[in-house]
Amino acid sequence: MQTLTITRPDDWHLHLRDAAMLAFVTGFSARQFGRALVMPNLSPPITTVEQALDYRHRILAALPPNCEFNPYLSLYLTENTPPQEIESAAQSPFILGFKLYPAGATTHSEAGVHSLKTIYPLLEYMESHDLVLQVHGEVTDGNIDIFDREKVFIERELHPIHERFPNLRMVLEHITTSEGVDFVHRSPANIAGTITPQHLLYNRNALLAGGIRPHYYCLPVLKRETHRQALIQAATSGNPKFFLGTDSAPHTRKSKESACGCAGCFSSPLAIELYAEVFEQANALDKLENFSSRHGADFYRLPYNSGTVTLEPAAWTVPDCYIGPDGIEIVPLRSGETIRWRLRNGYISSSSSFSKSSNSSSRGGSPS
Ligand code: DOR
Ligand code: ZN
Questions:
Q1: Beta strands 70-76 and 95-100: pairing type?
Q2: Is residue 16 within 6 Å of ligand 1 at its C-beta?
Q3: Cα separations (Å) of 135 from 35, 39, 89?
Q4: What are 163-183's pLDDT values in tens digits?
Q5: What is the largest CA-CA distance in the chain?
């Protein structure tokens, strides 16, 4: 099997956090991706252009030397977002839109939106300013089964929004269901969807069968196999409405392995390799480059990255844990298991990783 060289990819949905965590995780993304759309659900959230530009400077300061990585930001939409903030965002080259978190839907969503109707005037304003709404598409109604929350959100909220604001550009983030795929597929070109590696590779058995595996817990939660198959079909179809967004979301081991564990899968140390595995298994490696490096850039009206990355079929074992400063330990997706593809010449982080299986700890947490 030959190596695979593609235009440097982008991650259109990424969580980097702040402070020590930011300093630790940013290099994992920068070694493979040219750009990322960084999510604003910090505590407190990034709600203004000024805060976003400050955060962007902190991200740039966290980059390893000689890294070309361009972070873009999404602003956290609230019921109190002033229209002037929408105008300022539309003028900033580094802000690509607003993130809609239904209040209570996920990590740090408390400041999100309780009733979508209350933000209709803001959506109208966003539509007229051609800004993108990045949507966490789940209802938060406690009576709705957690596995149905995306489907119900599409019926109850997304269809009405799309009918009312037909020109509003929207990305349904981290699609997890066949209903999500259908919604994006049937909509016009101003509607797109991102897909994560975990939703392409795993169904809910990975989370629940034979024991609870908290490192496979994310939101929207993993669904049943039929949905996973619909996502694979969408991602590998060549349809430009679907593109890469990892939703890599670092949480410490302690906060995941808890009686009430946090939602989020940390995939950035091996993201492009995981996608390559999906595309290879679907016999669609020739579609990986468009999904990873072109469709998102086209949607966001940005040029393609100029460099390339090369993947080689050289199996390696994913560390059980990545260990950073200040006692940070993060268990990655696929921890302790093998992965078939390996990124060549990626930036080598100075992090350390720990592998229980080999009973050794090593410098250089990223594969070399
Ligand atoms: O699993 C998730 N983790 N889903 C989200 O929507 C947020 C993310 C996080 O910030 O940890
Ligand atoms: Zn996310």
A1: parallel
A2: no
A3: 20, 11, 17
A4: 999 999 999 999 999 999 999
A5: 58
Angstrom CA distances, 300 to 69, 117, 137, 275, 279, stand at 17, 26, 20, 21, 23
Per the annotation, the verdict on 247 as an active-site residue is yes
Count, in order, helices (H) and strands (E) of the chain.
Answer: 14, 15
Look up residue 250 and give its amino acid: P
Å from CA of 314 to ligand 1 middle = 31
Average pLDDT over residues 98-105: 94
Q: Mean pLDDT for the chain?
A: 93
User: Alpha-carbon distance 174 to 64, whole Å?
Assistant: 28
Q: Which residue has the tokens 């099997």?
A: 1
- Whether the predicted model's global pTM rises above the 0.85 cut: yes
- CA atoms within a 13 Å half-sphere pointing along the CA-CB vector of 64: 16
Q: Indicate if the alpha-carbon torsion angle 123, 127, 128, 132 is positive or negative.
A: positive
Q: How far is the CA of 357 from the centre of ligand 2 (A)?
A: 30
Q: Is 133 within 8 Å of 300 (Cβ atoms)?
A: no
Query: Cβ atoms within 10 A of the Cβ of 326, count?
Result: 10
